[in-house]
Amino acid sequence: MRSMRGLWFLAALGFIVLGARSSIYAAQDWKARWDNTVAKAKSEGKVVVFGPPGDAIRTALTEGFERAFAGIRLEYSGASGGETGAKISAERTGGVYSVDVVLSGTTTSNILLKPIGALDPIKPVLVLPEVTDAKHWMDQRLEFSDDAGQFNLVFVSNVNSPIAYNLEQAKPTEIDQLDRLLNPKWKGRIVINDPLPPGPGNSTFRLIWNELGPEKATDYYRKIRAQAAIVDRDSRRQLEWIAQGKYPILLGANSSMAQELLKRGLKFGVLAEFADIGGQVTASFGSAMLINKTPHPNAAAVFVNWLLTREGQTAWSQAMNDKSRRLDVSATHLPDFRNPKPGGKYWASYTEKESTRTPEEEKILKELFGR
User: Is 1 domain-assigned?
Assistant: First the structure.
């Protein structure tokens, strides 16, 4: 009996030793791979990144990355997702491959770049344990928007607020459910952010379609269109109208623009979600794509890993006013309406499945909002 216990003890001890050695070897493996990648990246000399427009994000990423990795220059170009997709498509048609990494919305990935075969899987280049360990991320996972879970890594989760309102003309409890917006008192007093082009109006109407289903949503689209005073595409102007009291309600508010204008002193209210159907989260510009046939593959890998660290995500969050999916990145600089609430009901509008309207929805929207 003692002999058997001794054998069990020795076996257990062996497993512990082997486990410890495996951990050491695993640490050595990633460290050796990382050091090798960084050395090769420095030989390449630079990484070319297409991302959001704006001096704040350009400066944050360029200075942060070059400070962390001296000897690797970040060449940054800012543009809208549509402009980025068009440029990369035109370059590839001409046999030019100049871009390494794209940081843009998930539509850019799933609608513009993936169909032309421009993307490489991202997971194989993720090396740093700080990045790959699921415990650092919301929902205990790395999030991807594409169906295959390979090509478009989402690192931002912003609440896209559906309603902005004039503080003197409307109360939250009067407008926080879909049917309350159909009250006759609001007829001719609602601004709708045009749902046809990409943007917050588009995603707000897709939320309604997703939650109500085709038949009820079609009926609601007709009724809310009849309530509207105006359909507009200028997000800043819409919010200024609400602040000035020209209209009491905006459906399809741009949350990023709302945050900016509130900081500048404009006064209006924002509803983060509907009380009846919940809200939605969006990636905004916060998703990463690794372009294939990249001219600087190692520098691209180093940049993507850095971007997903706490340091990189903090730089992004503060420059873009976005909610990072990293749990260790502070969101204290963001207003409440930008942060998903624990236990809240949020539709992920950024997935490949949800980013494209059905033909039925497209038809009714063009009928009601087409120009």
Answer: no
